[in-house]
Design brief:
Length: 293
C-alpha cells in the first residue's frame, strides 16, 4: 500500500482521495478550505493542518487544483524538500505550457512526474470510473497505474510530459464543437417541423451520430439520462467547458494550429456564460440558438 499526499480536496479531489483510501492506501489530504478537509476526513482521508504535514513521508503526491498558476505554486512548495523517489501526479485540467513547466521543476528536483487530467466529472470521480489521460515517462506511468486504477476505469498513457493535458483539451474541443453542431441541428429541425425524436432516430444511427447526440442529447426525451431532462442541471457545467475551450485556443496560438471551429465554440460559450449560464449544463447552450434564430 502506498503513502499518498492529496492536495486539493474539492468536487473532484475529495471523492478521488476517498477512493484511494477505500482501496487501502494511506491518504493524507490538504485543502485551503476547512470544510473540504472535514468532508474528506469523513471518507477515511487523514486531514493535514498544513501542506508540509501531508507531504512528510509521502511516496506519491497528487494535486487536483483549478488552474495552472495554482499547480505551479503548490509544486514549487512540494519540490523544496521532496522525500526520496517521490512521484508527483497532477490531475487538474491546466494549460499545456504550465504542465510542461511543472514537469521541468520536478525533473530538476529529481522527482518523477505525470500530468494526468481526467474526464468523467464528479459522478465518475465518486464511482471511480474516471478516464485518465497521462503524460510522462514509462517509469512514472508504471508506478502510477495501480493508483489511477483505484480512481478510474480507463487509463491511457498519451506520451511525454504535457500530452495528457493535450489529449484533454483536444477531446473537449471536439465535444464543445460537436455539442454546438447538434444544438444547431435540433433548433433547425424545430423550425422545419421535424420532431426531436425523429431527428434523434435518424441522426443517432446515421453519419450525424456522436456522443453529444447519442449519449447527451440536448433536448428532453430521446436520451432520458441527459441533463436536458433535468432543467440542465450539470453534468458538465458551461463555465468548465468554456475554460477548456479557452485552454485549447491558448494552445493553438502557442503552436500555430488552425482551429477556427474551436475559436467559434469558445466565443459562443463565452457569450452563453456572460448571459449568466456558467453554472448550468453546457448542453443548455441550445437555448441561446433558439433566441438567436
Ligand atoms: P474545486 O474548485 O471544487 O476544487 C479545487 C480545490 O483546490 C478547492 O477545494 C480549493 O480550496 C483547493 N485549493 C486551491 N488552492 C489550493 C492550495 N494552494 N492548497 C490546497 N488546496 C487548494 O474544483 P474541481 O471541480 O474539483 O476541479 C478540479 C480540476 O479538475 C479543475 O482543473 C477542473 O477543470 C478539473 N475537472 C473538473 C471536472 C468537474 O466536473 N468538476 C471534470 C473534469 C475535470
Amino acid at each position: 500500500m502506498t503513502r499518498i499526499a492529496f492536495i486539493g480536496l474539492g468536487n473532484m479531489g475529495g471523492p478521488m482521495a476517498a477512493n484511494l483510501a477505500k482501496a487501502g492506501h494511506t491518504v493524507t489530504g490538504f485543502d485551503l478550505s476547512h470544510d473540504m478537509l472535514k468532508a474528506a476526513e469523513a471518507t477515511g482521508v487523514k486531514p493535514a493542518n498544513v501542506m508540509t504535514e501531508a507531504l512528510a513521508d509521502a511516496e506519491v503526491v497528487i494535486t487536483m487544483l483549478r488552474k495552472g498558476s495554482q499547480v505551479l505554486t503548490v509544486w514549487n512548495d512540494i519540490i523544496r524538500s521532496p522525500a526520496k523517489d517521490t512521484l508527483l501526479i497532477d490531475c487538474s485540467t491546466i494549460d499545456v505550457d504550465s504542465a510542461r513547466k511543472a514537469h521541468a521543476m520536478a525533473k530538476q528536483a529529481g522527482c518523477l512526474s505525470l500530468d494526468a487530467p481526467v474526464s468523467g466529472g464528479t459522478k465518475g470521480a465518486a464511482a471511480a470510473t474516471l478516464t485518465f489521460m497521462v503524460g510522462g515517462s514509462e517509469e512514472g506511468f508504471a508506478r502510477a497505474k495501480p493508483l489511477l486504477e483505484a480512481m478510474g476505469k480507463t487509463i491511457v498513457h498519451c506520451g511525454d510530459g504535457g500530452t495528457g493535458q493535450a489529449a484533454k483539451i483536444c477531446n473537449n474541443m471536439i465535444l464543445g464543437i460537436s455539442m454546438i453542431g447538434v444544438c444547431e441541428a435540433f433548433v433547425l429541425a424545430e423550425k422545419l417541423g421535424l420532431s426531436h425524436q425523429a431527428l434523434f432516430d435518424v441522426a443517432s444511427t446515421s453519419s450525424g451520430q456522436c456522443w453529444s447526440i447519442n449519449s447527451y442529447c440536448p433536448v428532453p426525451g430521446p436520451v432520458p439520462s441527459s441533463p436536458a431532462n433535468n432543467s440542465f442541471k450539470p453534468g458538465f457545467a458551461a463555465d468548465l467547458m468554456l475554460k477548456d475551450l479557452n485552454l485549447s485556443q491558448e494552445a493553438s496560438l502557442l503552436v500555430g494550429a488552425t482551429t477556427p471551429l474551436g475559436a467559434a465554440a469558445a466565443q459562443l460559450f463565452g457569450m452563453f456564460e456572460k448571459q449568466g449560464n456558467g453554472g448550468r449544463d453546457f448542453s443548455a447552450i441550445i437555448e441561446m440558438f433558439r433566441q438567436r434564430t
